Structures are given as structure tokens and as C-alpha cells.
């Protein structure tokens, strides 16, 4: 059933069952083993998404499937360091970086919705500049990988290593879900993986510049995102 030549023939129910079964069977598997399963199962219909906070999952996936597609959302609000990390990943890693952009530029969005929509309605801003572009960009894929980790925040504590993305009707792979920050740091050090320079400047999680701040001692990694708004996720992951 999981032959890459037959993936396109599977129904959403087939894929859901495949994802849920894999989530159970691969719960204790290593990140490389999870990605080997994903690339073997989905082949070119599998991609990695990356915020370019670091290139850990992209690096892991490139070892399982050289030339793997790595999808990056250029919201128009990124730090220069984030764009630089994307360009460096494209230059030195065996991946195919694909940059997605919203339908409107920031200026066009400002003209329609008013300036600084991210301050007034961050959910709508994320929907226009992240959620919709990703939905459109994932159309040709059956499965996608993320860098979600259970230790990042309470909202991510139950992230499965393989699950079903109900919203997009796709298989969602989170190969480092069980990793800790120490595991990430060790992998980066061992393999010389590219990371966003902002991680060395007090930022624990890197998103759009207007909605990201440095974290304070004792805060979880996501505390610097949309601080003071009550918002914890951009909508890409639920």
C-alpha cells in the first residue's frame, strides 16, 4: 500500500490510517528512521517545511532523500538573518529550497487592511502571510515534515512523530518531536548544521520580526512569539 507509485491512489481515509499506524509504530524510532520511512513511502511527494530557525530537519531529511524539497515561507516580515540562513542552506546543503510568498506584498496588504495588521489582528496576518501560502504550496505533496518538538511549549506536548493533518488532508511528520533542546544542540554541533544567528542573541524561537522578541530566563522557547497577545501559534500547526 505504501509504494510511492501508488500513493496518489490512496484515499484520505487510507492516508489517515497509514499516518496513525506509523505514529504508533515509529514512536520510539530515531529521527533518521522516521525520515527514512517517510521518504521511502512518499518519495517526491514528501517535503520538509522550515522556518530557517535552524536546518536540523532539512539536514536529517537530506541524508534520507538527497535533493529533498525544503519549503520556506517568506512572509515579507522576516529578520535579515532568517533570509540569510535560507540562502546559506540553499547554497551548502543537498536540498531544493522552495520559497513561498503570500499573494499580496506587505505594501499591498497595508493598502487593503491598514498598516501593522500584525499588531491589530495577528491571526488574520498569519492567515494571509503564512497559512494560505502554505496550503497552496503543499498542494503537490502528500506528506510534509516539520521541526515541532514536544518540549517547546504546552501546546506541542502531544505532537505525534507521524500524524494526520486534518486541515490539509496530509500526512504530517515530526521526526524530532521527542528531542530536547540538548538533542538539537548536540546534533548541530556534531554535524555543523546551519542555525539562525539570532539563536545566539537571546531569541529561542524565530518568527516574523514584528512579532518576535528575545526570551527571558525561565521562559519556554515560544514565549517570545506574539508576547502579550495571548497568541501562541501562527495557525500552521493547529
Automatic annotation (TrEMBL):
Task: Supply the enzyme class, top level.
Answer: oxidoreductase
Q: Which PANTHER family match?
A: PHOSPHOADENOSINE PHOSPHOSULFATE REDUCTASE
Described by its record, this protein's role is as follows: Catalyzes the formation of sulfite from adenosine 5'-phosphosulfate (APS) using thioredoxin as an electron donor.
Question: Sorted alphabetically, which Gene3D superfamilies does this protein's record hold?
Answer: HUPs
**Which HAMAP family does the UniProt entry name for this protein?**
CysH
Q: How is the cofactor bound?
A: Binds 1 [4Fe-4S] cluster per subunit.
Catalytic activity entry: [thioredoxin]-disulfide + sulfite + AMP + 2 H(+) = adenosine 5'-phosphosulfate + [thioredoxin]-dithiol
Q: What is its EC number?
A: 1.8.4.10
- Give the protein's recorded name: Adenosine 5'-phosphosulfate reductase
Active-site residues, record numbering mapped to chain? 234
Question: Could you name the domain of life of the organism this protein comes from?
Answer: Bacteria
- Protein localization: Cytoplasm
Biological or metabolic pathway of the protein: Sulfur metabolism; hydrogen sulfide biosynthesis; sulfite from sulfate
Q: Where does [4Fe-4S] cluster bind?
A: 125-126, 208, 211
Q: Which Pfam families match?
A: PAPS_reduct
| InterPro entries recorded | PAPS/APS_Rdtase, PAPS_reduct_dom, Rossmann-like_a/b/a_fold
Where does it primarily localize? cytoplasm
* Keyword annotations: Cytoplasm, Iron, Iron-sulfur, Metal-binding, Oxidoreductase
- Cofactor(s) the protein needs: [4Fe-4S] cluster
Q: Where is the Phosphoadenosine phosphosulphate reductase domain?
A: 51-213
Please verify whether the record's keywords include Glycosyltransferase. Answer: no
Which terms does the record give in the GO molecular function aspect? phosphoadenylyl-sulfate reductase (thioredoxin) activity
